[in-house]
Amino acid sequence: MTRPLLIAQISDLHIKAPGALAYGKVDTAAALSRCIAALKRFAPRPDFVVISGDLADTPTEDEYRHIETLLAPLAIPYAAIPGDDRALMRRLFRETPFAAGDALSSAHAVGALDLLLADSSVPGHPYGLLDEPTLAWLNEQLASSTERPALLFLHHPPFVTGIDHMDVQNLHNADALAILLARHPRVRLVASGHVHRSMFTSFAGRPTTICPAPNHAVALDLDAHWPPSFMVEPPAFHLHSWTAGSGFGDVVTHTVPIGDFDGPHPFFDAEGKLL
């Protein structure tokens, strides 16, 4: 059996300047370093890493310089989309072939798979929007093939999660994205970030996910019981596994916890008897 293509997704790094803690509590730099170590030791190693937004916390130049240092050991090809400052990110990812215009969208071919990273950030605002040039770029990219499967990444979820203070920050023109997806069946997955929690649903008839964060999680508060809050829960990343098959192949998304855990332990002894 041919090994699947493995696309790791990490999101919402929220890196502060060296020595600073997010919200006075979370060491996001240490969290990213643990995440990178987990990606590098995962077997088989992922073919590509997508960083789906909010790389820096404030953002500032000091934070982006720190991000560059922290990402240096990754040793796996990667690309990113912003959730914060476009100008600072453009300087950090100066080798990335971004689409023309202000938005930092990019396309990447990984084997038989196309990865489309669409910039949904709105400068100065926490909500998301795919502007007309980005929608036109995305339509052009998807129309360039009728055979290659594609995974679509953006920062802001195109659906309501039930967490009120995050849902007002989601993708505000999700209907425009749904219309576009209806034209292009080769999109096998829509993957987002922003909410710091692993979620799975269907949008416009496509499997759709939110990636967890390597640091802290937005509290799963479905009745607005608390003010906007976060939890320090086990961190994780998503691993999207694409296997060639009929049509555009199959995608399975795994949630991979970050940390050192007991195991693996065998189920069976040397004679094949269940332990």
The CATH H-level superfamily is: Metallo-dependent phosphatases
> Which class of secondary structure composition applies to the elements?
alpha/beta
Number of H- or I-type helical stretches: 6
What order do the SSEs take from the amino end to the carboxyl end, as H and E?
Answer: EHEHEHEEEEHEHHEEEEEEE
- Count up the domains: 1
Separation, N- and C-terminal Cα atoms: 29 Å
Report on the architecture of this protein:
The chain is α/β, with parallel strands linked by helices. It has one domain: Purple Acid Phosphatase, chain A, domain 2 (4-Layer Sandwich). It contains six helices and 15 strands. Strands 4-5-8-9-11-10 form a six-stranded mixed beta sheet, with helices on one face. Strands 3-2-1-14-15 form a five-stranded mixed beta sheet, with no helix packed on it. The longest helix has 14 residues, at 28-41.
Please describe the structure with a list of short key phrases separated by commas or semicolons:
26% strand; alpha/beta; five-stranded mixed beta sheet; 275 residues; 15 strands; 6 helices; Purple Acid Phosphatase, chain A, domain 2
Quick summary of this structure?
Helices cover 21% and strands 26% of the residues.
Break the fold down into its secondary structure elements and pairings.
Elements: E1 5-10, H1 28-41, E2 48-52, H2 61-71, E3 78-81, H3 86-92, E4 106-110, E5 113-117, E6 121-122, E7 125-128, H4 132-143, E8 150-153, H5 164-167, H6 174-183, E9 187-192, E10 199-203, E11 206-210, E12 217-218, E13 230-231, E14 236-243, E15 250-257
Parallel strand pairs: 1-2, 2-3, 5-8, 8-9, 9-11
Antiparallel strand pairs: 1-14, 4-5, 6-7, 10-11, 12-13, 14-15
Helix pairs in contact: 1-2
